[in-house]
Specification:
UDP-N-acetylmuramoyl-L-alanine:D-glutamate ligase, 10 helices, 17 strands, nine-stranded mixed β-sheet, 295 residues, 27% strand, alpha/beta
Length: 295
């Protein structure tokens, strides 16, 4: 590909089997690459995605409604499928099981794509080989959603649980944008205070840290702690919250200050959470939401 992209998102779509707290089950295509890709492109950023799946997932149809996305698909013997059982109406508590998994990404199969950000958006440990981080750091700013290195699937049952990342001290200095949620930040640092956790992650080498919570989004850049609240009026589109927020923030940061990018990302994800599926609105929709609910 001859053009330069703002972001290259490396990660697989997932056939999600979602059961809510009242026992209703919905099958839908999710995954960080889907929510992140739609969010970045909706804001007008030149976006390339590198999804990986077998024929069970029609990659072309997954991204057909997105604007400003180019797809460079990879094949895998299997697609990823995840079963999510939500235990509360706010979807903050859930049990997860990997039904099937892709063959993990390796550095050798990443095509030569010119992008300002390499966004690593795996869904569980093993999806993206950690060796891709230094490989990507030689090409672009590296953005990592740490879920892909903390969430582990039991080899026999598929049940997923979170465990610390043994390579964190080696890999964090190569990461520019790091995203965790509050629980993941505690696993990494042992700290429940989100500001202190962010400062610890910065001291370990990451340059800009995002920590998401159900009430707010926090950014720390080694100097100041910035926060913006989440203001969604309902949570029908809660799935993909962190992916949408992170992708919106990092792509906006290419041209905007931290407060500006954070405000856009918080409004974007608040609006997205009010409707199921990936965000497919426009920048103008986000700006209108900011005027109504933030300023």
């Amino acid at each position: 590909m001859g053009k330069q992209f703002d972001t290259l998102i490396i990660g697989q779509p997932s056939l999600d089997i979602n059961t809510d707290h009242e026992g209703r089950t919905v099958r839908e295509i999710g995954g960080a690459v889907v929510y992140s890709g739609y969010a970045a492109s909706a804001l007008g950023h030149a976006t390339c995605v590198l999804p990986k799946a077998d024929s069970a997932i029609n990659i072309a149809s997954v991204f057909a409604q997105a604007r400003n996305i180019e797809v460079a698909a990879l094949e895998s013997p299997e697609s990823t499928s995840i079963e999510n059982i939500y235990h509360s109406a706010d979807k903050e508590r859930r049990s997860c099981r990997a039904v099937s998994r892709i063959a993990g990404y390796s550095a050798g199969e990443i095509p030569d794509i010119d992008a300002r950000i390499y966004h690593l958006a795996g869904l569980m440990r093993g999806d993206i080989d950690s060796g891709i981080i230094p490989f990507a750091a030689e090409r672009a700013l590296v953005a990592v959603d740490v879920q892909g290195f903390l969430r582990c699937a039991d080899e026999k049952t598929g049940e997923m649980s979170f465990h610390d990342w043994s390579e964190k001290l080696k890999m964090l200095p190569k990461i520019h944008f790091l995203k965790t949620d509050a629980a993941e930040a505690e696993i990494l640092t042992g700290l429940t205070d989100r500001s202190q956790a962010a400062k610890t992650l910065y001291s370990w080498g990451a340059k800009e840290i995002m920590i998401t919570h159900n009430t707010e989004v926090l950014i720390y850049d080694g100097k100041d702690v910035y926060t913006e609240p989440l203001k969604a009026r309902n949570l029908s589109g809660r799935s993909g919250r962190g992916d949408t927020c992170f992708s919106g923030y990092i792509t906006e940061r290419l041209t905007r200050s931290i407060p500006e990018a954070l405000l856009t990302a918080a409004a974007l994800v608040s609006l997205k959470m009010e409707k199921p599926g990936p965000f497919n609105g426009t920048r103008e929709d986000v700006e209108a939401y900011i005027r109504e609910f933030y300023r």
